Structures are given as C-alpha cells and as structure tokens.
# Entry
Amino acid sequence: MLIVSALITGLGLGSMYGLLALGFHVTYAVSATVNFAQGSSMMLGAVFAYTFAVRLGWPLPAAVAMALVLCAVYGALVERLAVRPFVRRGSNAWLMATVALGILADNAVLFTFGKEPRGFPMAWASGSIEVAGINLAPLQLVIPVAGIALAAALHAFSRYTRHGKAMLAVVQNPEAARLMGINVPLAILGAFALSTVFAGAAGILIAPLFNVHSDMGTVFGLKAFAVAILGGITSAWGVMLAGILFGVVESMITALLGSSYTQVLTFAVVIVALAAMPNGLFGRVEVKKV
Amino acid sequence: MATAWTRRSILGLAVAAAFGASLPAFGADTIKIGLVTALSGQSARAGEAITRGLTIAIDELNASGGVLGRKFELLRRDDEATPAKGVIAARELVFKEKVAVLFGGLDTPVSLAIVPIMNEAKVPFMGPWAAGTPITRNGANPNFVFRVSAVDEIVDKAMLQYAQKTFNAKKPGLILINNPWGESNEKGLRAAMDAKGVKAAGIEKFEGNDVDVVPQLTRLKQGGADSLFLVGNVGPSSQVVKSLDRMGWKVPIVSHWGPAGGRFTELAGPNAKEVHFVQTYSFFGKQGAVGEKVMKRLMATYSDIKGPGDVTPAVGVANAYDAMHLVALAIRNAGSTDGPKVREGFYKIATYDGLIKKYSKPFTPDNHDAINENDYVWTQFIDNQILPVGMKQ
# Structure
C-alpha cells in the first residue's frame, strides 16, 4: 500500500516536473536559450485560470483555454523582451533577464491577485476513489495522463506538422532554414509561447491539489530545471521521463526512508546520475562543428 | 554689512522656524513602536491582525494622552516571512528609526533571527504571535525579549492533554512543518509525551510547498497513529487536510494555531472543520467589558468588520492589543524609553485588566511569557469562522 500510494503521488508530481521541463526543452532545442523563470509561467497559468473560473465564474473549459492563450502571449513577451534583444548582441544576459522578468511577474501578481493563497475548488480534486486498494483523488490519475498526452502532442507536432518541421529545421541549421523561407525569429517566438503554455498547463493541473499564490511556482521551477538537465535537455521524451522518474524517486524516498531524507537524497541521486552520464539520462552528446 | 547680516539672520530664522515647525510632523515627540511581520504572502492576514490589535490599543492610549506626555506612533515593515528580510527591517527600525520597542510577527524563524539583534541593541522585543519556545528562553542575560502569546512547550503539553481527553488518543502521529517552528514543537511534543509515557506512532516532516503529503501520512497510518498532532502555517496545514481527504483517512487532528492564519476552510476544503486548534482568545460567546469595548472599536475603525466572525485571526488582534497595553505600562513604569529601563519596567507591572485575562505580575526575571496553558481556548473552523469547539454559529 505504501509503495503503490507513493508511486501514484510520484507519477502526478513527476508529470508536473516533466511538463515544466518540456518548456525548457522546447526553447533550448530551437534557440539554445531558456526561460529560467518557468516557475512564474506555471504560476501565471494557475492564477489566470483561477481568475476566470472562480472570480469571473466562467465555465472551466473556457477559463482554461483563455488562461493558456494568455500564457502563450506571456511566453512571446518573454522572448521579445528578455531574450531576443540580448541574443542579437551576442550577450548571455538573457539568463538574468528571464529571471528578472519572472520576478516582475511574481510581484505583479502579488499586487493584483492578492497576498493570500487561494483555494481552486474542483470536484475532481476533492474526495477520493479507490483504485487497486488505494484511495486517491480522480485528478491524480488525470495529471499523468494529461502530462504524457501533452508530451505526445509535442512529439506529433514537431514530426508531422509544417510548423513543427519548420522548428526542427531551425534547430538543425538556422541559417539554412532562413534561406528556405522559414521565419526563424517567428519560430523561436513560437517555441517560447509553447514553452509557457506547457508551464501554464502544469500550473492549472496542480492548482486544485495545491493553493494558488504568487510564489507557488518557485520551487517547481527549480526542480524542473534539474529534471531538464537530468533528462538531457535535447530530448523531449527524455525530459518527460526524467520528470516522472524524479517525482517517483522523491516520493519513494519519503515513503520508505522518511521525509527528512527527501531533498538530500533526491538531489544526491541527480548529482550521481549526471556524474555518470554528463549529457543526461537520455541526452545526446552535442557535436560542435568548427 | 548690517543689512546683509540682517538678511542672513532673517533667512536663518525662517529656516529654523520651518524646521522647528516641521519636527512634530515627523514625529519627533512620539514614542515609536516598530512592527516587523509578514504583510504579504501566505501569512499576510496574520500581519494585518497584529496591526489591527496594535492600532486599536495605540488609539486608546493616544486618546488618553499617551505615556510620559508623548503619543505612540506605529512603524510597520514587511518581513515577507523571511528571516533575512526580518533582520534587515529590524535593524532599520532599531538603529535608524530608534523605536522604543519592537514587535515581531507570526513566523518563529523570523523572530529567532531578530532576537540576538535586540539583546545586543538592548531594545525590548515583544512577541505577539510566534510561539517558538527559544524566542523568550534564548539564554541571553540580560534578556530583552517578552511575549504575550502561546509558547510551543506549553502548547505541546496542552495538545497532548486535549487529544487524550477529547479523542482518547493513545498513539499519536506527528506531522510537522520542516522549519525551526516544527523543530521547536517536535522537542516540546517529545518531552510532553515522554512525561506521560505516550509513544508516538511516528514523526514526519513536510515542506511548506509540498503538494502531496500522502507518503508521510501513510507512514503514520501504517505506524498505527490514532490521532495526529499538526504543526504548520495555514497553507501547509491545508495540504495535510487535503491529503488526508484524498487518502480517505478520518483521524482526529489536534493542531497548533497555524490554521488560524488565513482562509483555512477555502484552502483545506470541507474537512477543515475536523482540525481542532489552539487559540488564546475568541470574540465569540459572552465577552467581558474589555472584549465588548475592543469589538466596538474594531467595528468602528475597520469597515470590513461587522461582527466577531470578521476578526480573523482573532489571536493576532487580541495578543497584540494586550501586548501593546503592557508595553505602555512598562514604559510608564520605566519613566523613559531607554531600553534597559523599559525592560525593568516590565517586571514592575503589578496587574493589568486585559482582553485575554486579568494579568497579575505577567513578567518576572524568570518568566518572560505572559500567557500560560490556563489561557488557551480550543477552536475549529466552521465555514470561514473560528469558533470555540462545539459552539454553533
């Protein structure tokens, strides 16, 4: 019972880490840059959805759709304001700029949304159902399914759609892609928008089980970055699997050894794994042509 | 030459007059009272409650002429529930603003970080909320830290006593927030259980941002816990209740007062009412003369307060109100705002008919805590209101 229960908890949390880490993967793969404040993007998804669904009383699907659209707009703004101007000048200051923009978003939400955490009521998150002798909330089953479905959708998008193929072309050779008529800046902008949509979706999925507040994404963002590196940031499925693995290891350690060891041992496992496989569990060695 | 001197002197006089006139506006004659607490984030409501208790008391004191012929002025700073920010704010208020007494907030880690600064600066520190035992029992001599609030060590004894009496608890499980407040209570609960020969089913920690506490709770359930002792602020406590809900585990929960710090029912869901937690005061039920007076003032001062249910968290308001009056008495006894003299002034307080109780020799050199186990009230959330256990709305 202890193991199965921890496994279900780990799968749910791991899917969240995976979704956030996929955001890191999408932008890194296309532009070799990331939005370091993915946690803030996650928080924005939850705050937007809460505002539309609870405060304004919209039907949940409409609230979620609008929240994701706004997340995409925010992602595009991150790229336009905090990444592109620095990359153009060959500067790495986008590292700090994305963090700064995240802090700005956190504080803007603090002042507008309010200082107190709010509950996001959802029927699927409360009460419990029994599955294989384990009690859990229905949403806990939905989260891993939704996480894996989104990862599969990303895979399908990049392999089978024109826009996805255009993004892959940008990854392989931006200059050649530009000469083939692909709008490279637009592809990168789209990658950031997509990255933020993933983070926003994670925030919306986790909000009913957690609380909605301005700093709810901070720790998630940090763990997701560790997951992205662990999975090998260049591999979409690798990142998603690493997320699930991280969540399961985290919750197994808590269940079997006690919560005092959770953070220490989880990150120790990450360090050992990266020492053994520096490109991540599923990443490829990058070859630089000179 | 004479003309120039005259012009200069006139200008000088004008500047002096302007300065002189402006001094009272900057509060030079007031006794500054500092407050470092969370005014944003998950504990913002607690900070607001302390502010309201202090404001009502200060308004009363100022209306009756203040103390030593001077009125009180409250200066607030937001510590964002972070020790580092609390320390910066405390230093600014003590060394720059020269506050006579500094009040702390909800978070034990923040207060513990501020305590050494206060003892070094020899400025009294008053705790109206944070319950960590080492805040007042900090080993400093002289000790400048006083408190009008619950004390973990005493609350822990009361939690065990209440669980045994109300739920016939024989093997409680401990679920504690992983920070100095949780550690303080782990120590207190272990000592209380050892003294009564009670063995814990297990001791589990959880983080403030844990989404799912099921693994920890499952360990306690498998250890045979027949009740839970919960220590955590409102957000984390709600995660424990929601996790129990998901597990379908109905178990009595006896809690420290963390749930009182915010919208517990909204965050924890319908099972929030299952948590019985300690308070030092409730505005529900029959009130004494001071209780009625304070309630009227609160309703007159704050438009959002229509009745006792709107004074949340009541503990912050009540503790801060009594603490401010005790501070005023200490300053009056000292005849000065000099820190060491005010410290001695606390020991000279004979009686004070306060909101929580009638205080008699509330502070002595061996006891810097004015509230004891006889002053605790056991409460629960019914909808959004904190009511004494068993009381109907």
